[in-house]
């Protein structure tokens, strides 16, 4: 069973008023994410060790194996983007009560959480991701990973939110201004209801 590009959970134009235009989403979903899926399927086709494995199993199996780096990069990016589309919402930006209480307990204030999330995205040199995770010690933490890696691979916890800081995610809307993209994403695009549901399910 080949891996497939998931459909967006909203129209490609649905986030335009929130700072992510239709062209960004169409290219990012239809071209970039599709390319990761196509490449991953090509690797699975040629490698019996990968056949029959779930996406999560391929991420874990290929992580840290130099000869499988291209597999890891594309599997990781497929996993990351499946989450990323769900991590944004046309009604994003509002932090529901249970998540806010947990954020306040673990970061001190919502502002401190947002500052840490933004700093991780700015501090990820080159392409990669900034994450809000539920770490194995039960606390919310901010992490960052390069390229296609993710907390699933690094074992840093369950990913609740991931921000794509590859240039393709923001260049049409914010040009080189990654900090402005991050501020907007955290304040207006982030689907905190998804994050709260994932937290409760953990
Ligand atoms: Mn991307």
How many runs of DSSP E, i.e. beta strands?
A: 3
Q: Uncertain runs with pLDDT below 50, 5 residues or more?
A: none
CATH class of the largest domain: Alpha Beta
Q: Tell me the strand order in the biggest sheet.
A: 2-1-3
**What kind of oligomer do you see?**
single chain
Question: Could you characterize what this model shows?
Answer:
The protein has 202 residues and is mainly α. The protein folds into two domains: 21-86, Orthogonal Bundle (Helix Hairpins); 97-201, 3-Layer(bab) Sandwich (minor pseudopilin epsh fold), CATH 3.55.40.20. Helices cover 52% and strands 10% of the residues. It is built from nine helices and three strands. The protein has a three-stranded antiparallel β-sheet with strand order 2-1-3. A hairpin with a 5-residue loop joins β1 and β2 (140-146). α1 (22-46) packs antiparallel against α3, α2 packs across α3 and α5 packs antiparallel against α8 (178-189). The longest helix has 25 residues, at 22-46. The protein starts with 21 loop residues before the first helix and ends with a helix. The model has no long low-confidence stretch (mean pLDDT 98). It binds manganese (III) ion. Manganese (III) ion (MN3) binds next to α1.
Describe this structure in a few short sentences.
This protein has 202 residues and is mainly alpha-helical. Helix content is 52%, strand content 10%. The chain has two domains: 21-86, Fe,Mn superoxide dismutase (SOD) domain (Helix Hairpins, Orthogonal Bundle); 97-201, Iron/manganese superoxide dismutase, C-terminal domain (minor pseudopilin epsh fold, 3-Layer(bab) Sandwich).
